[in-house]
Amino acid sequence: MEHDPFEDVLIYFSKSLLGKKGEEDILWDMAKNCISKLGFEDCVIYLVDNNNLLVPKAAHGPKNTHNIEDGPIEIPLGQGICGHVAKTAKAEIVNDTSKDPRYIKDGAAGLSEICVPITCDGVLYGVIDCEHPEPDFFTDRHLKMLSAIASISAIKIKSARDCQALMEERNRLIQMKEEMVDLKSRTLSSQLNPHFVFNALNSIQYFITSEKKKLALEYLSMFSKLIRFYLGQLGQESVNLKDEVDMLHSYLDLQKLRYDGLFEYTISLQKNCKNPEEAIIPSLVVQTLFENLIESTMSHQQKGQHFDVLLEVTPHSVTMDIVHSSLNMASATNLSGYREGILQWEDQINLLNTVKGYNITSSVDKLSENKRKMTLELPRLL
């Protein structure tokens, strides 16, 4: 049985690719080793970029540099023989390029040209383009071998790109997890900012020195529960709605104490809500939001402010309407703005939506000159 040297090339190429992981290694191995073994004098391997241009990535023969590093020649899909093969995804042999108007001369003209698309699962990755100075050089056997090489290369390129995509996604998730840890740390630091802690403790101290021991014990109990709640939630991604509301009461009561009764509040549940105590929501969202609201609106030390909080629990979401009333709403310019040094609440929501896919939404509506409503919709996790 006659020995077929082309089969040796195919076997060699298949083995050679086993150790290649990156696209560049695959393409240069194809150009420098495989194509040279086929006896071709000139070859350029193009890949399709994001702009649908064929960009040379590896070469063999007189064009082995092919300006790849210094301003490579880019071919739009549909132009030239390469561009036509890329657009149609059908291999071609041109026996005499001087008679083909599509031929684009690049350096020394080759009278024969063979061009094969690199495709896998209907995706075009690029083309293998070979030229020879003699006419009628390339045969159907060449075409069959080059098509097989292109198919093997396409599978390897797809695998390399899939691995790269997985690595990028893995790195993205690691980065996001790091950001979440940092966010939780900054959230805790923000919620336990020195102004809040010291003022709350000073107020409790005042009750003690004024012999108002009952009030001192009451507020000290609130403060300790709130601190334990914050510390407990640092490692948690969700919280029971009932616990969150209980802690919100404590937080707002302490803030009322801190700001000497500049505001009042009510928290109520919409009628016909079934089993609200079983609702689970994302943690560290509501508390941070209310710190946002209190710190921004109390900075003007304006009396007579009121927050009406209405909760609605559905099987899939928990909606919180916060109506803020003030005698002079103009002074409270931005319900969602932090004073300097306070964590931006919007950053937290954006990160949670990106990492966890929570789709938390919020909006602010002006109800009247002295009244605005903020609506927060949270996913019900359980």
CATH hierarchy: architecture of the largest domain? 2-Layer Sandwich
Gyration radius (Cα, Å) is 35 Å
Number of strands: 13
- The CATH superfamily title of the largest domain: Histidine kinase-like ATPase, C-terminal domain
Low-confidence stretches: 331-343
Task: Report the major sheet.
Answer: 6 strands, antiparallel
The proportion of residues in beta strands is: 15-25%
Mean pLDDT over all positions: 81
The general outline is rod-shaped
Order of helices and strands: HHEEEHEEEHHHEHEEHEEHEE
Could you walk me through the main structural features you see in this protein, from its secondary elements to its overall organization?
By secondary structure, the protein is α+β, with helices and mostly antiparallel strands. The chain folds into two domains: 5-168, Beta-Lactamase (2-Layer Sandwich), CATH 3.30.450; 192-379, Histidine kinase-like ATPase, C-terminal domain (Heat Shock Protein 90, 2-Layer Sandwich), CATH 3.30.565.10. The chain contains nine helices and 13 strands. The protein has helices at 5-16, 23-37, 80-88, 140-191, 194-209, 213-233, 241-258, 286-298, 345-356, and strands at 42-48, 53-60, 75-76, 92-94, 112-120, 123-132, 238-240, 263-269, 280-282, 305-313, 317-325, 361-368, 371-379. It has a six-stranded antiparallel sheet, with helices on both faces. Strand 12 (361-368) and strand 13 (371-379) form a beta hairpin. Helix 1 (5-16) packs parallel to helix 4 and helix 5 (194-209) packs across helix 7 (241-258). The longest helix is centred in the middle third of the chain and has 52 residues, at 140-191. It is rod-shaped and about 105 Å long. Residues 331-343 have low confidence and may be disordered.
